């Protein structure tokens, strides 16, 4: 699949997740540059179209899609998800429970 008009930060995350190498010229594209995943599909969520990449062999990047009824709730869910991820990170770095 080829994508265009994608933010550089999203492109970097996609490359990290699939093991691909970013190529800006098709003449420079070789088989070793391609990444892998089980599923790549475009899905429509409300009025937006999203590309979902699932089943990567060794993902080094993931995305959490947070949705809610209002921006205030989205902000609160985002803070909660961040706090949870930091707890997991802390436990992995120092596996002790007090």
Set down the secondary structure blueprint:
Layout: H1 8-18, E1 39-45, E2 48-54, H2 71-93
Antiparallel strand pairs: 1-2
The biggest beta sheet is recorded as: 2 strands, antiparallel
Order of helices and strands: HEEH
Instruction: Indicate the structural class.
Output: alpha+beta
Number of strands: 2
Which spans of ≥5 residues are poorly predicted at pLDDT below 50?
none
What percentage of amino acids are in beta strands? Answer: 5-15%
Estimate percent helicity: 25-40%
Rounded mean pLDDT is 87
Distance between the termini: 48 Å
User: What is the overall shape?
Assistant: extended
DSSP helix count? 2
Tell me the radius of gyration. 17 Å
Biggest sheet: strands side by side, in what order? Answer: 1-2
Report on this model:
With 98 residues, the protein is an alpha+beta fold. The chain is 35% helix and 14% strand. It contains 2 helices and 2 strands, in the order αββα. The longest helix is centred in the C-terminal third of the chain and has 23 residues. The chain is extended and about 55 Å long. The protein starts with 7 loop residues before the first helix and ends in a 5-residue tail after the last helix.
Question: Nutshell version of this structure?
Answer:
By secondary structure, the protein is of the alpha+beta class.
